[in-house]
Amino acid sequence: MPPKRKAAESATERTTKTRRASAKEAPAAKPSKSAPATKKGAKDNTKATTTPSGLDPTTFTLERVQAMFDRYTDEDDSNIIGAEGMERLCTDASVPMDGALPLLITWSVNAKTLGTITRSEFTDSFGKLKIDTPEKMALMALDLNFLFFGYNITEQASRMSLANNRQDSDAYDRTQLRSYQRNAESAYAKFYSFCFVLVKPPQSRNIDMETAAAFWSVILAPKYPIAGELLEFVTEKGTYKAVTKDLWSMTLEFCKTVQPDLTGYDEEEAAWPTLLDDFIEWKKVKATANTDDAVMSD
């Protein structure tokens, strides 16, 4: 599950309860044997390869979307997938829980509550995307991950035969993905803003720094190198307690504008939040100290 507020118990911090086994997908049809030689001009309908059953677009139905949801519902509420159900879904999809992929899945269904996906969120969104198997869901998340972060989860993709198998091109409806591809930075900004709203406690205007740092580590640091140093600074300083919506938004803009060597930082025109100004000063002091150490060692 994605990182959670301090008060919330993450799925990875709890012992997973024993669940009934998920209904198995029907096995993929075996490739037909080579047909006898045909006369010249006759059609040969034999396929050279077959699409993995979990990625077969011809199997899609809305009923299968409902059935997929039902496999992961909460024991106490059949209309939601909670933290444990999400963990089982990601496990079946070979999606790791400790990165951005679960958050991308949560964003794709426009979930309103951290750690919970409702039946309507799931079925409405995946119905439009034509996703009715964990494998198709994983492929969709991997596509978004590649678009936003420029790399793929190769180990997971390889296990699912996605990395080198391009028969998945029609596995789900990529209309929305193509719209994101036309302006990837705008799409990423929407995802980034969504994460703040998702994790913000009800009736609160801020999120605590510990939660913000956990999210930044999986949605900001992999995209912008300077974000890793910012997280190091926040941890070392230890005095920042909360992140406002403005600071959350400006941190993204800062990471897009300023390079690790501070190229792009204009001291005369800078109007960043205090935390980011403090970070710049910290980097300058650190750079000076490193230079002095290098001179002394010579």
Describe the protein's architecture and organization.
- There is one protein chain.
- Helices cover 49% and strands 3% of the residues.
- It has 298 residues and is mainly alpha-helical.
- It has 2 domains: 53-183, Recoverin, domain 1, CATH 1.10.238; 200-297, Cullin, PONY binding domain (Recoverin, domain 1).
- A two-stranded antiparallel ribbon has the order 1-2. A two-stranded antiparallel sheet has the order 3-4.
- The relative contact order is 0.10.
- Mean pLDDT is 82; it is low at 4-49 and 154-166.
Short description:
With 298 residues, the protein is mostly helical. It has helices spanning 62-70, 83-92, 101-108, 119-129, 134-149, 154-159, 175-182, 184-199, 209-219, 225-237, 245-257, 274-297; strands at 80-81, 117-118, 206-208, 242-244.
The proportion of residues forming helix, as a percent range, comes to: 40-55%
**What is the total tally of β strands?**
4
Q: Work out the helix count.
A: 12
Oligomeric assembly = single chain
- Strands across the major sheet, in which order? 1-2
Mean pLDDT: 82
User: What's the CATH H-level homologous superfamily of the largest domain?
Assistant: EF-hand
Amino- and carboxy-terminal Cα gap? 49 Å
- Biggest sheet architecture: 2 strands, antiparallel
**Coarse structural class:** mainly alpha
- Ranges with pLDDT <50 over ≥5 residues? 4-49, 154-166
CATH class of the largest domain: Mainly Alpha
* Beta-strand content: under 5%
> Which fold name fills CATH's third level, the topology of the largest domain?
Recoverin, domain 1
- Compute the CA-based radius of gyration: 23 Å
| Order of helix and strand elements from N to C terminus | HEHHEHHHHHEHHEHH
- The general outline is elongated
State the CATH architecture of the largest domain.
Orthogonal Bundle
Number of domains: 2
